[in-house]
Design a protein that fits this description.
Blueprint: H1 3-40, H2 42-50, H3 55-69, H4 79-95, H5 100-117, H6 126-136, H7 141-151, H8 166-184, H9 193-202
Helix pairs in contact: 1-2, 2-3, 3-6, 4-5, 5-7, 5-8, 7-8
């Protein structure tokens, strides 16, 4: 076999190997994107929006979050721990009627403490705790983000545009409850949105004694509405 033929065979082989490598990288990238979108759900769309539609930048950010927090293992709560957290959440909900801002502040603190008790980063490191929660509770972490924002907004026009109104505080507390239920329940429990909507419609005035069905006594007639 002549030297020229051997060179052609080598060039063809290299071209095939490169083609396979490129195809593999593209396939892996597509699968990675689909995997991130499946894992993060609404947080994936928020990440894309934060990056002004740059999907690759958003996926790099989310992949880094998974690398940093994906190995976290949630610690189960002791029954007495869970009961204490649930009692505090129920009290905050009932307190909303008289003091909406104080109730929202307590919900924000409670989520931070509950997440820390489950093994997430210290609540004093809000951004890091939120990032870890986004990896493991992506469907409901927006509720924590919302209630934290409302809790730290100044009240009654003390900042440009004014603070959060009673209705926004009420909505933030309702949204945050979904994450609370995820964290307060057994590891791996992920109650459906439909189940929670049914519970909201029923809105029992007092706890019926079953975990996950918490009292929700306030509506639109809280003070300041």
């Amino acid at each position: 076999m002549s030297t020229g033929v051997i060179i052609l065979i080598v060039i063809a082989a290299v071209a095939v190997v490169l083609g396979v490598a490129v195809l593999a990288l593209r396939t892996r990238g597509a699968q990675g994107g689909r995997g991130l979108k499946r894992r993060f759900g609404p947080e994936y769309e928020r990440a894309v929006a934060r990056h002004d539609g740059d999907v690759k930048a958003a996926e790099r950010e989310l992949a880094q979050l998974v690398e940093r927090h994906g190995g976290l293992r949630e610690r189960p709560l002791e029954p007495t721990e869970a009961e204490r957290f649930e009692a505090r959440w129920a009290a905050a909900q009932e307190h909303f009627v008289e003091s909406p801002k104080e109730a929202v502040d307590e919900a924000d603190r409670l989520l931070a403490e509950l997440a820390q008790a489950r093994g997430f980063p210290d609540g004093a490191q809000y951004e890091e705790q939120l990032a870890a929660l986004a990896v493991h509770h992506a469907d409901h972490v927006q509720g924590y983000r919302h209630v934290h924002h409302v809790s730290h907004a100044r009240v009654g026009g003390e900042r440009e545009g004014g603070g959060a109104g009673t209705e926004e505080m009420r909505e933030a507390l309702i949204e945050a409850r979904a994450l609370f239920e995820d964290l307060a329940g057994p590891v791996g429990r992920r109650a459906s949105h439909e189940s929670r909507r049914d519970t909201d419609r029923q809105a029992p005035a007092r706890s019926n004694g079953h975990r996950g069905h918490l009292p929700w006594t306030f509506t639109r007639h809280a003070k300041g509405s």
